[in-house]
Design brief:
By secondary structure, the chain is mainly beta. The chain contains 2 helices and 9 strands. A 5-stranded mixed sheet has the order 2-9-8-4-5, with no helix packed on it. Strands 1-3-7-6 form a 4-stranded antiparallel sheet, with no helix packed on it. Strand 6 and strand 7 form a beta hairpin. The termini are far apart.
Length: about 130
């Protein structure tokens, strides 16, 4: 079913003032997306718990981020830094506390489009190893 012709997708229009926005905590501390390129540079949204403090610190793979924005009480957005491949840890700290209040895993990978880079450098690479005729 759908109201826009795409199964499982719907569009809704809301007018007026939206008040009493509450956060959803059933799923626990989560990130969106849950996986991404290890090269970073994309927006990471942290959600799933109520962000009631005035400030938070986000640590990704041991790196303390300084560019995160708090949209209390619903979510925090950060720009994903460059990280190592594999499963990494995202940890959340409240008000300069040394103990994390939440954490979640994030899966990083090398994007498949690196093949384009390899192929574009192929001629240069082979000319260095192929004997001159």
């Amino acid at each position: 079913m759908s109201n826009i012709g795409v199964p499982g997708q719907y569009v809704f229009h809301t007018t007026g003032n939206i008040s009493n926005v509450e956060c959803e905590t059933k799923g626990g501390f989560l990130s969106t997306p849950t996986r991404g390129s290890l090269y970073g540079g994309y927006e990471l949204r942290l959600h799933g718990i109520c962000f009631n403090e005035t400030s938070y610190q986000v640590e990704i793979d041991g790196q303390l981020l300084t560019d995160c924005q708090l949209y209390a009480p619903l979510y925090i957005t950060c720009i994903m830094p460059m990280v190592f491949g594999g499963t990494i840890q995202i940890r959340l700290f409240a008000n300069n506390d040394n103990h994390p209040i939440a954490g979640t895993d994030f899966v990083t990978f090398v994007p498949e489009d690196n093949a384009e880079l390899l192929l574009s450098n192929y001629a240069e690479t082979t000319s260095k190893v192929m004997p001159n005729e």
